[in-house]
Design a protein that fits this description.
Layout (H helix, E strand, L loop, with lengths): L1 E5 L10 H12 L7 H6 L2 E4 L9 H11 L4 E4 L11 H13 L4 E3 L3 E6 L6 E6 L11 H7 L2 H4 L1 E2 L8 E2 L2 H24 L4 E4 L12 H4 L4 H7 L14 E6 L6 E5 L2 E5 L20 E3 L9 E2 L25 E4 L1
Parallel strand pairs: 1-2, 2-3, 3-4, 5-15, 6-9, 9-10, 10-12, 11-14
Antiparallel strand pairs: 1-13, 5-6, 7-8, 11-12
Helix pairs in contact: 5-9
Length: 327
Amino acid sequence: MKISLLSDLHVEHFESFSSFQDKYEEKFHRKLLSTKLIEEGSDVLILAGDVANVKQESFKELLNDVSHRFKHVIYVAGNHEFYGNEYYSCMESMKQVCLEKKNIHFLDQSVVEIKDDETGEMVVFIGCILWSRVPEASKPFVGTSMNDYKVIKIQDNASTEPVNLTVNDTVKWFEEQVQFIEKQIQLAKQENKRAIIVTHNAPLTKGVSDPKYENSTTEFTKHLNTAFATDLRHLMGPPVIAWFFGHTHFSSRQCHNQTIVASNQLGYLLFGNEKNELYDEFWVFDTNHIDYSKYKQVSDHSTENNEHHATSAQTTTTSNKKKCLFM
């Protein structure tokens, strides 16, 4: 099975998908997914969040475009999908739009199994936003500095009016989603199936962001960075063959314990002020031909600390499993 990966397209910054494509062509001298190199080479496209806003027509335009180019599209939301929206209603709206296309699988703390035509096996895709484990000491910095907690609303049964999302909300979701991922990994292992995890937030805190942020020694940056990445190496290893993510606006490809950890993030195309040399829309991950020597190895003994690494960019409450099979 061959997989293409994209995230952080931020189409919501443009008036339409066509205007996004014009800007993309201006920078890369071609439109996104405009050639057959990708669609002929990949069975699955993964969209790892921060793609577009469901309130804008460009959301449907983008999904309609990719649904015709790939046999399967797997989509996990990022934090920006919820900007200017109420969290739960926005999540439901995205699910409904994706249901209009039978080959688009919106993963919200859920899984989908897709048949590998080369081997005949079913590959399990485990998806959720993830969010991050923000320590108590970092919560005040994250809560006041991240736009998530200013422009995302949340309305549950206990509130009569939507209120601002809080760091406590997202940390709670993070813990629930880690438990969900752990459970699905165990199920895949019991069923002797290979698994691929798709999240928006990063599952490593080294090598996933611009070094100028990652190696920062300022206390503010260290605190802020806890909202972008969490060290989840303990979840890596067989049966998980890959973990794809976004959020940091810094493309990277690494390996830990035979799990490929990779992102392919466009970033803020409209502003054009980010250095992202590894972004490559033609990058393809082949589940049956993995050359581990091509990936930077992440050591078991490296000192990762979720409180002390930075990134370059500024996330479902139910634990019920939703499983679909696709041949």
